[in-house]
Amino acid sequence: MMKIAIGNDHAGTEYKFEIIKLLESKGYQVLNFGTNTNESMDYPDTIHLVANSIENKETELGIILCGSGNGAQITANKHQGVRAALCWNNELVSLARQHNNANILSIPARFVSLYQALEFVEIFLNTKFEGGRHQKRVAKIPIDCK
What we know:
This protein is an alpha/beta fold. The protein has six helices and five strands; from the N terminus they run E-H-E-H-E-H-E-H-E-H-H. Helix 4 (90-100) packs parallel to helix 5 (114-126). The N and C termini lie far apart (34 Å).
């Protein structure tokens, strides 16, 4: 059973609960690192936990939500092995998986509908990395810290 990490700030709480229902209905195990309230909080506190789970290979994929999606995506991409993609339409979600082998989907909760967010999750889960010419590009992303 694939494990998927999810994290959010206060702007993404409502969508997170619906995404978890969708994921669990499809048999995924969900690790919820996000806040469960609408009280203002700092997105890095939950997003780093999602990114750590990817970095440490505890989960295969992640979904993160904040108001614009930008802060969450920037935070997640500080971690080695994380390729978080900020997506606001279906084509971007597909391309993030096909061309960039994105392993975290960042959703801008204040700029897309719940229906769109759920559709993004479906596309993210069902789209495969194409490899080929894209593989060499993805391989150049990590920084050699040695």
